[in-house]
Write a structure and sequence with these properties.
Number of strands of chain B: 10
Shape of chain A: globular
Oligomer: heterotrimer
Chains: A mainly alpha (about 500), B alpha/beta (about 325), C mainly alpha (about 160)
Radius of gyration of chain A: 23 Å
Largest sheet of chain A: 2 strands, antiparallel
Shape of chain B: globular
Strand content of chain B: 15-25%
Order of helices and strands of chain B: HEHEHEHHEHEHEHEHEEHHEH
Number of helices of chain B: 12
Low-confidence stretches of chain B: 1-28
Structural class of chain B: alpha/beta
Distance between the termini of chain B: 73 Å
Order of helices and strands of chain A: HHHHHHHHHEEHHHHHHHHHHHHHHHH
Structural class of chain A: mainly alpha
Largest interface: A-C, 70 and 68 residues
Mean pLDDT of chain B: 85
Chain lengths: ~500, ~325, ~160
């Protein structure tokens, strides 16, 4: 065991392995920054090439892409409100407002250091928690997933800044759009409007691009005569004081980062949930626990830190069910299976016994990868901030075109461009009439999961809703959700009472 | 003004140079000279899935045989049928091929409206065959087929089985086997075999039916109790498990396959050339070994045999799907 | 007063759309394969459409309520702080739709320069040299990255 451990570490700390790790991180980082591309495509493209590398070398490349790809989407999310990947959607919430306030460099730094912190945390969870977490992942069946999703929805708190009625409309619309395509229980096709591609549902990436990025671009076009703010942003970028992320601020954000890392690690270890949900749930937790929840969504650094940490912390733990059970925790993790197979490694219960050095090498890569991730991140972010030096009347047309081509690339289909434009128009209308897009997005992401899990549960219980009573873990999640809802309701009631006392002052806020 | 026009012309030339080269001369009906340019292989699923990984490995090996690169294009959507429809209506010159999974051709058309028929795609070659495995989870105390049938008869509709989705091959194949044995289990659909195998391991469903790949090590280790494989004969990868012949049901044996298709009207010579190149892969021991580890066996069928198999299967699945539809 | 009409109209339109979707769902005969029981395919879409309808109605009621409590005339709706012109974004959106519609017919290499060029002209980029260089350079860069480097076949149009 000790010998295998050393052997694994020895293979990981070679200079050529480090180089592959760095190349992978750069590739993943860049791929994720381009809307429509993600770590999945990057790995799939490079997979045949990994056959010519040593097992640990191949894994180094993959781990690099995975880590870079989990983080790279945040750059464009912060600078341009264009999340490069679905996982970076929550980063837009506070990252983009920060950039608008002239703190783009600072926002990029917060994102990077939150990601690096969470990444290290996740690597340690992967190494020391695999044995503990794997059996728990199996205890989560359809009823527990359903309870968990209900809990997640409560934590995220769909009723945010906007009026409850408007949020309800957005949530309803999100759930409705999530039901487009085959229903998960009977396979009946719904709302396909005669488009074959829609029978498998609305594609997520074009939808997010459309909903978040396109309305922002359209609005920028609307006020093109007032590009002063961009000038200011550039002036601020030259002002190091505004861009610094101080140690004191890091310390202030650290509890949020660690909490979000824990949330992200647990969600990552459960197959089928993924980084986007982890980011939103972490964000919700951070807002609930914050002393200044009203600052969230307006450029609060803890919100940005929570979103980035929550997403990044899923990277290591998604490999836990893969390594111990052979079940991939995400689409990207699934690609490690062929990569392992190419080198004759069968993941599953016997992997530690049969292929110890490879697994320990992988663990070592995850730790070293954190440092590489930090270094690459510093370099890329320094270059990325210069995007803002491009004159806005060239930058925004270029970004608009990039989002459309990105949407096309995500599915290799013009239907995807149509989806992006449809949601772009919808997002624009929603903005004009005060409907928040984020609840719609969250409801869309979680909607499919909710319907599937409830449908499966009812099949398992043979249509008896009381079946949930026989599942203690599910009941615990429901109880947690109820508790959070109660606390929130009490807070809202107290808030309303204090508003009644001084109605005039509050109306303007 | 003239300066910028000049720049325009230069730039235009640059675009032309980057544009894909004019399509080469079409291959003759005998396939001579084919292929003389890269071939596009369309996959109906997103990058990273089973069909995608399979196609990418196949593409690298086949391009060595054919002397031209095979470019894999993912066109996901509608359970692989968006890609099938596209290839069905592509130019039949052998430079656009479809990498198909069994359900794309012989199952999904019975469940959804698709804009192509069985005749619009010409079978070229079947590459691999993937039998399914039936395995019992930790809470069900049966260890073989006989035990499962007895338990299910004693407790009708009590047992559940998990598959990779409603109307998928594991669903239809299981229904056929269970009905033949006169037992009824409740089907729980999951999103893919990774999730259904996790549910079986966690004891949320009693039985897993699906691809061998995701559960092969669990069946070997005994964390899932293998009951049978759905091919007629036992499989090399799980040698202890009986096939359907051993339980006297060889006639309903079911195996999934992966293969290549071309648009209708593709020259016979081209189809034959591709089939011959694929045949060579069966002699490539590293390819065979790689596929076996992923739970697939190389099982080359040429154009005629492949077409016979597909036609028979199409009828079979049409009957099962019809009997499962809501009244 | 404009704020009130706007609120009531907004809520009314949402409620109308929601109930139209509800009616549509009721009229559909969505069938798939028969499983032993299980949830109806109409349950989730129905609940979602109901939430939309309900939300819309609440917006209408809240709008009317606010108008009554502010009869004194101090009333300024929360949604009134948006004097943005709606026309330019709409025009840009329509332009993008046109571009997407032209893509399959003209091909990426013809439609994109056309769209990009018009885009930077209306966005206020001056100088023919800049306009042309940027248009051609960016189109070529996108084409190179996606089609050549990543092997994504972009729409090719009639020129193969």
């Amino acid at each position: 065991m000790a010998g295998e451990l050393l052997q694994g570490i020895e293979q990981a700390v070679r200079w050529d392995t480090m180089l592959l790790l760095a190349v992978g991180t750069i590739v993943g980082d860049l791929a994720a920054a381009i809307p429509g591309l993600s770590a999945i495509q990057a790995i799939a493209l490079l997979l045949p090439f990994t056959a010519y590398l040593s097992p640990v070398g191949a894994l180094a490349l993959l781990v690099g892409i995975y880590k870079g790809g989990c983080f790279g989407g945040s750059t464009t999310a912060i600078l341009l409100a264009t999340p490069g990947t679905a996982e970076a959607s929550a980063t837009v919430l506070d990252g983009y407002p920060m950039a608008r306030q002239g703190m783009a460099g600072k926002a990029l730094r917060i994102a990077l250091w939150s990601s690096v912190t969470a990444d290290l945390f996740a690597a340690l969870v992967l190494i020391f928690g695999a044995a503990v977490l794997a059996p728990y992942a199996l205890k989560i069946g359809p009823p527990e997933y359903f309870a968990l999703v209900v809990c997640a929805l409560t934590i995220i708190g769909l009723v945010g800044q906007a009026s409850p009625a408007r949020s309800a409309v957005a949530v309803g619309l999100g759930f409705l759009l999530a039901t487009v395509g085959q229903d998960p229980v009977h396979g009946a096709v719904r709302f396909d409007i005669g488009v074959l591609a829609l029978t498998s549902g609305i594609p997520l990436v074009p939808m997010i691009i459309g909903l978040l990025a396109i309305p922002e671009l359209l609005d920028q076009f609307g006020k093109r005569h007032r590009s002063v703010s961009v000038e200011q942003m550039r002036a601020f970028l030259r002002d190091p004081e505004k861009q610094r992320f101080t140690l004191a601020e890091y310390r202030r954000c650290l509890p949020t980062m660690l909490r979000s890392s824990a949330v992200g690690a647990v969600i990552g270890a459960l197959p089928g949930l993924g980084g986007a949900i982890a980011a939103f749930v972490s964000y919700g937790v951070a807002r609930r626990l914050s002393k200044h929840p009203e600052r969230f969504g307006k450029g609060e650094m803890e919100g940005l830190a929570a979103a980035e940490a929550g997403d990044s912390a899923t990277v290591g733990p998604t490999l836990i069910p893969l390594l111990t059970l052979g079940i991939p925790g995400s689409g990207t993790a699934a690609l490690f299976i062929p990569a392992f197979l190419l080198h004759g490694v069968q993941v599953g219960p016997r992997v530690f016994a049969d292929h110890g050095p490879v697994v320990y090498g992988l663990f070592a890569l995850f730790v070293i990868g954190t440092a590489v991730h930090a270094v690459v991140g510093i370099g890329i972010r320094a270059a990325a901030a210069r995007i803002l030096a491009v004159p806005p009347n060239l930058l925004y047309p270029a970004v608009l075109l990039m989002t459309l081509v990105g949407a096309y690339t995500a599915e290799t289909s013009l239907v995807a461009v149509g989806v992006a434009l449809f949601f772009g128009g919808l997002g624009m209308v929603m903005r004009r009439f005060g409907f928040p897009p984020i609840p719609l997005l969250i409801a869309f992401v979680l909607g499919g999961l909710t319907e599937t899990a409830l449908g499966q549960s009812l099949l398992l219980f043979d249509n008896r809703l009381s079946g949930f009573l026989e599942r203690p873990l599910a009941l615990a999640f429901f109880a947690l959700a109820a508790g959070i809802a109660l606390v929130a309701a009490r807070g809202a009631w107290q808030g309303a009472r204090s508003r009644e006392r001084r109605p005039a002052a509050d109306q303007r806020a | 003004m003239s300066g910028s026009r000049q720049r325009f012309v230069i730039a235009l030339g640059l675009i032309m140079a980057l544009a894909p080269g004019a399509s080469g001369l079409a291959a003759g009906a005998d396939g001579a000279g084919y292929p003389d340019k890269p071939i596009t292989v369309v996959v109906g699923y997103a990058a990273g899935g089973g069909q995608d990984s399979f196609t990418r490995v196949l593409a690298t090996r086949l391009s060595e045989q054919l002397g031209q690169p095979l470019q894999v294009v993912n066109r996901p959507g509608a359970a692989g049928t968006v890609a099938a429809a596209e290839v069905a209506h592509a130019r039949p010159d052998g430079y656009t091929l479809y990498s198909a999974f069994i359900s794309n051709i012989t199952i999904t058309p019975h469940l959804n409206k698709v804009p192509y028929g069985l005749d619009d795609l010409v079978p070229i070659v079947q590459i691999t065959s993937l039998p399914l495995v039936m395995a019992a989870g930790p809470k069900l105390h049966v260890s073989d087929w006989q035990g499962l049938v007895e338990y299910a008869k004693a407790h009708p509709r009590r047992l559940t089985y998990g598959t990779d989705g409603v109307g998928g091959l594991p669903h239809l194949a299981s229904e056929r086997i269970f009905r033949a044995a006169g037992i009824e289990l409740r089907m729980i659909p999951f999103k893919g075999s990774a999730e259904s195998s996790a549910a079986a391991l966690g004891g949320h469903v009693d039985v897993y039916v699906g691809s061998i790949g995701p559960v092969v090590s669990h069946v070997k280790e005994g964390t899932l109790k293998g009951i049978l494989v759905t091919s007629a004969e036992p499989q090399a990868v799980l040698p202890g498990l009986p096939g359907l012949k051993a339980i006297g049901r060889a006639e309903i044996a079911t195996e999934a396959w992966r293969g290549l298709f071309a648009p209708k009207g593709t020259p016979k010579g081209v189809v034959q050339r591709l089939a011959n190149a694929a045949r060579e892969l069966a002699n490539d021991s590293s390819f065979v070994e790689l596929m076996r580890k992923a739970g697939e066996e190389i099982a080359i069928l040429g154009p005629e045999e492949f077409e016979r198999r597909i036609r028979a299967e199409y009828e079979d699945f049409g009957r099962i799907a019809g009997s499962l539809k809501n009244p | 007063m404009a704020g009130l009409t706007r609120e009531v109209l907004t809520g009314g339109v949402v409620a109308l759309v929601g109930s139209a979707v509800l009616a549509y769902i009721r009229s559909q005969e969505w069938t798939g394969l028969a499983l032993a029981g299980g949830m109806s395919p109409k349950l989730f879409p129905g609940l979602a459409a109901a939430a939309m309808t309900g939300g819309g109605l609440v917006i209408v009621v809240a709008g009317l309520w606010r108008a009554r409590s502010r009869e004194a005339g101090a009333g300024v709706g929360a949604s009134e702080a948006e004097p943005e012109a709606a026309l330019p974004p709409l025009a840009l959106w329509l332009g993008s739709v046109l571009y997407a519609a032209l893509l399959p017919h003209l091909g990426f290499l013809a439609a994109t320069p056309l769209f990009l060029f018009s885009l930077i002209v209306v966005w206020g980029v001056r100088g023919w040299a800049t306009r042309v260089c940027f248009t051609v350079g960016y189109t070529a860069a996108l084409f190179y990255v996606f089609e050549r480097l990543l092997g994504v076949p972009l729409p090719s149009g009639p020129w193969g």
